[in-house]
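Submission sheet (multi-component)
Chains listed below:
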Amino acid sequence: MTRVVVDPVTRLEGHLRVEAVVENGVITDAFSSGTMVRGLEKILIGRDPRDAWAITERVCGVCTTVHALASVRAVEDALGIAVPPTAEIIRSIMLLTQYVQDHVVHFYHLHALDWVDIVNALKADPKKAAELAASFSRWDKNTTSYFTEVQDKIKAFAASGLGIFANGYWGHSGYKLPPEVNLIGVAHYLDALQWQKEVVKIHAVFGGKNPHPNYLVGGVPCSINTEEVAAINSERLNLVSNLISQADEFVNEVYIPDLLAVASFYKDWARYGGGLHNYLSYGEFPTKGYGQPDSFKYARGAVLNRDLTRVHPVNPRDAEEIKEYIAHSWYTYEGGDSVGVHPWAGETKIRYTGPKPPFETLEGHEKYSFLKTPRWKDNAMEVGPLARLIVSFAAGRADVREVVTQTLGQLGVPVGALFSTLGRTAARGVDAALAMVWLKEFFGQLMERVKINEVSTFNGERWEPKTWPSDCEGVGLEEAPRGSLAHWIRIHEGRIDNYQLVVPTTWNGSPRDAKQQHSSFEASLIGTPVANLEQPLEIIRTIHSFDPCLACAVH
Amino acid sequence: MSSPEIGAGAAPVVQKEHPIEYRRVYVWELPVRFYHWINAVALVMLCVTGYLIGAPIRAFYAAEAWQQYWFGWIRFLHFVSAFVYVFNFLARLYWGFVGNKYAKWNNFFPLTRRQRDEIVDVIKTDVLQTRMHGTISTGHNALAALIYFFTFLVFCFQTITGFALYSSMSNSWLPRMFVWIVPLMGGEFAVRFWHHLFLWFFVCFTIVHVYLAFYHDYIEGRGTISSIVGGWKFEREKE
Amino acid sequence: MGQSIWQTMEKKGYSRREFLQLCTAAAAAAGLGKSGVAQVASAFQTREKPAVVWMHFQECTCCSESFIRASHPIVADALLDVLSLNYTETLMAASGFQAEKSLSDTIRDNKGKYIVLVEGAVPTKDDGVYCMIGGRTAQSILQTVAADAAAIVAWGSCAANGCVQAARPNPTGATPIHKLVNKPVINVPGCPPIADVMMAVVTHLLVLGKLPALDSLGRPKEFYGRRVHDTCYRRPNYDAGLFVESWDDENARKGYCLYKMGCRGPVTYNACSVVRWNEGTSYPIQSGHGCIGCSEDGFWDNGPFYQHLPSFPGFGIESTADTVGTIVGVATLAGVAAHAVVTNVRKHQVIAEVRAEERKES
Ligand code: HEM
Ligand code: HEM
Ligand code: NFV
Ligand code: SF4
Ligand code: SF4
Ligand code: F3S
Ligand SMILES: [Mg+2]
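Outcome: structure written.
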C-alpha cells in the first residue's frame, strides 16, 4: 500500500492537493484537499449588496463573470427585481462567451497535456499531420507548412530547455497518440492561446474588460443607442457578431474535431473515472426571464443513480435540500461539526487543524481541506457539463439529446460511456458546441430587439436602498462552466447580513461528508489503475476532467 | 488689566442711563480686517464650490460637452479661491508677528493665567449663561482665540489635503510639494473623503462664529460687530 | 539553454528584418519609441532567454488570465521566444514533485539572474497555514524564491496591495509582497492589470535588463502616472457638468460622465483610459460602468462603489460625509437658535443686571 501525493496539482485554477492510496497498482482511496482560503464570505458581511458582484467576481479569474452573475441574481431575488429582457439576453451572451472560452482553454491548455505528448510531436511528419487534419476538419490553417513551422518552433524551444513543458510525464506508457496527432494538438494549443484572447472581447464590449467585466444589480451597465458613438451601437454589435463567427469556426473546426480525434485513441478511458452516480444541474439560459426555470435551455433538476428516466425537482430554498458539511473540513459550526447547514444559515468559521507545515502527508488527520462539503438531500452530487447534459437529456430537452446522441455516435460508444473521465471531457465539448449554437441564437435576439428599439437594460425600481425591506433573503442560481453555482444572501437594513457561496468545485472537490460519503474527485479516482507511481498520469487525467477550480471551491 | 491703546477719539459721552465712560480702542488694524473679509469670502466660495464638486447639480442647458463648461468653472473658482485663501492666510501669519498686540501670535495660545481664567469666564458667559458679563479682553477673548488656533490647524489640514488633490492636476511647484501626502493618507479616495468631510467643519464654524459675534456684541455692548469692519472697539475707562 | 533571443530566432529561420520587427514591437510595448529599437535589438542579441518563475498564492488567477490576453507580443510568442517560464502552476505540464523540481532547478541554476513574478497575496496569520503548496506555506516559499531573484514583480492588486482577501476584516492576514521581502518590488496593480501593460513590464525588464522607472509606490511611472480621469474620453462631459443621473437614462445612452454614479476615475491611477483593455476594445467606463478604482490600495474598502463618497460608519449604508455633515450642521443651527432664544428670555434679567451694575458703579 502506497500513498501517492500530488501537490501542487497543476494546470488548474488554485491550490489542490491529492493524496491517493494505491494498492496493487489500483487506487483504493483518495483524499482531495484545497489548501488555500481567503475568507471572502466573511469579507462580504456588512457591505452594500450592490457591491457584492464585484467582490464575488474576484473569487475566480478563470471563470470570471460567473460569480458576478450569481451575485446579482441573488440580490435581485432578495429584492424582487425583474431584469429587462434585453439585459437578460446580454447576460446570457456574456455567460455563453465564458463557456466557450473557458472550455477551449481548459481543453488545450489545462487538459491536453494529459493526452498529448509534446516531445513525441517532434517525431511527426508534418505532411501526414496536414492530411490527417484535413480528414476531420475544414480549418484552412491546417497545412504542411504550418505544421512544419510549429514543429520547428517546438524543436528550437526544446533545445533551449522546455520552459513550462519541462518535467512533464513525457514518454509515459499512457500516452497513446501517434506523433501526427500530437503535433496537431501542439499546434492548436498555440492557436487556441491566440484565439481565446479574441473571443473575450465580447466581455470587453458589454462589460468593459476581461477578466472581470462589470455587472449591475437590476440589469447590465452598458446602454444601447444606435444613434450614439459612446454607447453600444452598430459598430460594437458588428464587432461582437464578428467575434461570434470566429468563435464558431474555432469551436467547430478546431476544438470539437480535435476532441473527437484525441478521444478516439483513448476509448479505454470510458471505463475509468465515473465516480458518483448522482448529477445536479440548476438549469441555465432563461428564455422567458429568470423567474421561469421551465423555459431555460438547460433543465433544472437532479438525476439519481444514473437513472435517466427520472428528473428530481431541486429547490434551493428548502432548508432540507442543500446543506454544507464540515466534518472533514478546516471549519467549525456552532451546532457541532457533524451537522449540515443550509446556506442561508451558513457559517464560515475557519479553524485549521491540519499538520504544521512543512508536512509530507495529511494522513491521520480527520479534517483535511478548506473546502466545505455540499450535499443535496444528503446525496453526493456531481456537477459540471456532464451533469447538466445528463439532467437535460433525462428531462427530454431535444437539442441536448440530439447533440449528445450524435457525439456518442461519432465516437462509437454507448450512453454508458458518458459516466467516465472520457465522457466528462467529451461532455465539455458538447457543452461548448451547444453554447455556440445558443450564443448565435441570443445574439440574433439581441439584434431583433435593437431593431425594434426595445433596448432598456436596467430596472431601477429597487436601486435605492430606501426602497428595500429591512430584512430579506435571496438565492442566485447559475450553471457556471464547471457546474452548479449558487449564492445565498441575507440582507438586513441595507447591508449584507450573511453571504454564502456553494460553488461547482465545492461539490466536486470536497472532502467526504459526515457519513464518509466521497465527493466526485475522490469517488472517481477510486478503482483507477496507476501504472507508474512516480508519474501518476492517471490521477491528473481524471482530476483534470472536472476542470477543477480551487479558488472557486474555497473562496 | 493691561493698558489698552487709547483711541484717537474723545471719551464717549456719558449719559444718564450709561454712566460708565468708554474709550475708543483701535483693535483691528487694516491688514487684519482685510484678512478677515477676504478669508470669509474665500471660505464661503470654497465651501459652496467644494460642495458642488462633490455633488454636482443637474444643469443641462446644452447637450454637447463642447457647448458648456459650468462644472469646469466651478472647479476653477474653487482653485482660485483656494489660492486666495492660502496666501491670505500666510499674510495673516506674518501679521501675527508684526501687527499690534491684538493681532500677535501669542493671543492664540492660553499661555498665561489670565487667559486661562478668561476661558472659564467665557464658557460661563457663552455656554452656561451663569454669568452674563465680565472682564473680557478687548482683542480676542481667550476662548475665541484658542478656537481660532484650532481653526487655523483645520485651515492647514484643508490646505494640505486640497493641494495634495491638486498635485495630480498641476505641475507647478506649490502643489507638487504635496504629492507625498496622497500615499501617506492611503490614496486619493481617502484624501478626498477627508477634504470633503472638513467642509462641514467650516459650515459649523461659520454658523457659531457669526452668531457669537452678534452675541458678544450684545452682551459686551462695545461694538464687536462694527469692529471687524472699522477696527474700533470700546473699552471701559476704569476697573 | 543560454542562447540569445536573436540566436533562437535565427535558428528558427527568422530573417534579420523579422527580428528587427519584433524588436520594434517590443520597444513600442515597452514604451521606448523608435529610438529604443536599437537598444532593444542589442539587448535581444546579447542576453540569454531569461529564466522566469511565476508564483501563485492567494489569488483568483485573473492576473494569469489577463497575461494570456496580451496582444503585443502575443503570449504564445512570449512563452516560446522571449522568456523561459519555468514555473507557473496554471500552465506548466509538470505536477507534484516534478513541478517543485522545475522551481528548485531554476533557482539553483540561475542564482541572482532569474525573475520572480508573483500573483496573489500571502497570508501571514496563524503561521501562514491559509495558503500552502506542496506542504509548505506561501510565506516560506516566497522567502526561498525571493532570496536569489534578480527582480520581483508583484502582479495585480493582490500581490501589490492585498486586494480582495485583504479587505476588512482580512480574515487570513493577507499581505502584499513588498511588505514581506526586503528587495525592491515592481508593483503592477489592477484587478487584474491590463494584459499589454503586464507584457510591457516584462519586456521592459527583459529587454533593458533593469527596473523600469518607478513611483514612490513602486509602480512603473509609465502606466501608473496618470489618473483614469485625466485621459478619460468622457472628461469633456465632466467639465461640462453633463452627468449620468441614473443607470441607462437618457444621459447614459449619450455617454455622459459617470461621476455621479460613483466613478472612481478621478482618484485612480491606471492606464485604462489610454491603453484600454483587450487590445484596445474598451475599458469599464466605455462600457457604461464607472471605474471601481481596482488599482488603488484598499479600494475594496472604499465602497459602496455607487456613491461618490464612502458610507459613513454607523449611519446606514447610504450615509456619506454629507449626511453626517448636514446632521451636524443642522444641529449647530438648532443649538445657536436655542441659545438665542434663551438669551432673549433672559434679556430682561440681563438688562436689569447691567443697570444694577451701572448704578453701583456710578
Ligand atoms: C478650506 C476650505 C475648503 C473647503 C471647504 C473645500 C471643500 C472641498 C470639497 C467639499 C471638495 C469636493 C470633494 C469631493 O467630494 O470629491 C473639494 C474638492 C477639491 N478641493 Fe477643496 N476645499 C477647501 C480648500 C481647498 C484648498 C485650499 C485647495 C487647494 C488647492 C483645494 C483643492 C481642492 C481640489 C483639488 C479638489 C478636487 C477637485 C476636483 O477634482 O475636481 N480645496 N474641496
Ligand atoms: C465665513 C465667514 C467667516 C470666517 C471664516 C471668519 C473667520 C474669522 C477669524 C479667523 C477671525 C479671527 C481674526 C484674526 O484675529 O485673525 C475672526 C474674527 C472676527 N470675526 Fe469673523 N469670520 C467670518 C465671518 C464673520 C462675520 C459675518 C462677522 C460679523 C458679522 C464676523 C465677525 C468677526 C469679529 C467681530 C471678529 C473678532 C472677534 C473676536 O475677536 O473674537 N466674522 N473671524
Ligand atoms: N468551480 C468553479 Fe468556477 C466555474 N466555472 C465557479 O463558479 O471556476 Ni473558477
Ligand atoms: S488582483 Fe484581482 S484579478 Fe488579480 S488575482 Fe487578485 S483578485 Fe484576481
Ligand atoms: S467617467 Fe469617470 S473617469 Fe471619466 S470623466 Fe467621468 S468621472 Fe472622470
Ligand atoms: S476599475 Fe480598474 S480596470 Fe481601470 S477603469 Fe478603473 S482602474
Ligand atoms: Mg461557501
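Remark: The longest helix of chain B spans residues 70-98.
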